[in-house]
Amino acid sequence: MTRASTSFRGILSIVGDIVEVDASIARRLGIVPRNQELAMVEQDGRPFSLAQVARIDRERVSLKVFTGTQGLSNRAQVRFLGEMMQAIYSTNIFGRVFNGSGQAMDFGPALEEDPRVEISGPTVNPMARILASRMIRTDIPMIDVFNCLVESQKIPIFSVAGEPHNALLSRIAVQADADVVVFGGIGLIYDDFHTFRKAFEDAGILSRSVMFANLASDPVVERTMIPDLALAVAERLAVEEGKRVLVLLSDMTAFADALKELGIAMEHIPSNRGYMGDLYSQLARRYEKACDFKGAGSVTILSVTTMPGGDVTHPVPDNTGYITEGQFYLHDGVLDPFGSLSRLKQHVIGKQTREDHGQIMNTMIRYYAEGIEAEQKQAMAFELSPFDHKLLRFARRFRERFMDLNVRMPLEAALDACWALLAECFSRDEIVIKQSMKETYWPDHVDTNADAEQELAKPS
């Protein structure tokens, strides 16, 4: 009998979604299981669930059972398939939705005969990478103007429960100038998944997108497979098709929680707050797939990482911060310009963008910071100067025109809007910026009124 057709009884224990199998029985049958190899668990002569080798420890092999172990008997049989987990890869995957086992879940045409690509492959040889130098426009001013998203970047959105991080991620998917969007939903509630699917359909980008989804009601084991499936497809699209691929993952904290649950079931020694000691390596394995390939396309990773209790020192955001190239910090419904950072933006600002981009970006943030200080002085009943009143007006309008997540502006229009706001709130001589920039970009006509000017001049 061939390996794929040889099944045997040898289950030693069932703990959570982990099944331990007696490896000595497999070896007597000439079967030597490999790490991450797939297996089929069968019960009463029928397939019960796909499984994957999670650990090989002397005479025991631990299997992650994809659909969970509820109803599984220790008299069930195991059949090792001799192959690794694969994702379907062909032109037929666009517009389709797949689950954490890589199977289509949208009731579309069958794809069993389509070619596949192995997941969990090694990261790209550094010699095949090129330096990030191209911007991905999103038409969101707080990203495009102040913290550019750059091709091949890996960057998370740090958020907390209740914040509109999924709404923001779907907007980026719709508005980003990428060739292909690969979405990976990890432990999503159905409403959030439906929001993403509907946003893609309404915007007409479903035909250039691929979706992998694990819902909150789906098996935990499949939750751990979503990033690998999404990134395997994205990498193949970038290398073989030369596509600029944007990978969106939500939520990587749910991914880490799934790893923790499986680790506990396998009796791994927990580390910080119950997470396994290899959490950093597990996250880095996925994030390091971001790459700009020499002579081909690119893979850019934008993920959501929720911070339980808003704690940035929580193991998941803490480890993520050491791996990624900055973060977008979402709180109180806006992207915080002080907590957000893109470490690759210097590669495109002023090079791929307008010459005034760097100057106007720094100037706007500086005056907004001073506006926050003026608001604090006002709250404590300190006397405010006429310039403080100008800063108050600037801060208020800055939040309305740029920080509101519903605002959509192309980069050039957003830069012009920055100059317009400065001209509305300050005189030309009050702005500390290169004179040559002011001569070129300062608006000729400023939309102000006498009442507003009088309000600015009011003493406190």
The global form is: elongated
- Number of helical segments? 14
Kindly state the percentage of residues in helix.
Answer: 25-40%
- Beta content comes to 15-25%
Largest sheet: 10 strands, mixed
Helix-and-strand structural type: alpha/beta
Q: How big is the Rg? A: 26 Å
Write down how many β-strands occur, each being a DSSP E stretch of 2 or more residues: 21
Termini gap: 90 Å
Uncertain stretches of 5 or more adjacent residues: 450-460
On the 0 to 100 scale, the average pLDDT is 90
Walk me through what this model shows.
The chain has 14 helices and 21 strands. The strands form 4 sheets. Strands 9, 13, 14, 15, 16, 17, 18, 19, 20 and 21 form a 10-stranded mixed sheet that branches. The chain has a 7-stranded antiparallel sheet with strand order 1-7-4-5-6-3-2. With 460 residues, it is of the alpha/beta class. Strand 2 (11-15) and strand 3 form a beta hairpin. It is elongated.
Any descriptors?
460 residues, alpha/beta, 7-stranded antiparallel beta sheet, 21 strands, elongated
In short:
The protein has helices at 23-28, 141-144, 165-175, 190-203, 220-223, 226-241, 252-265, 279-287, 315-323, 357-379, 386-403, 411-425, 435-441, 450-457, and strands at residues 7-9, 11-15, 18-22, 37-43, 46-57, 60-65, 77-84, 86-88, 97-98, 116-118, 135-136, 149-150, 154-159, 180-188, 209-215, 244-250, 291-292, 298-306, 326-331, 334-335, 341-342. With 460 residues, it is α/β, with parallel strands linked by helices.
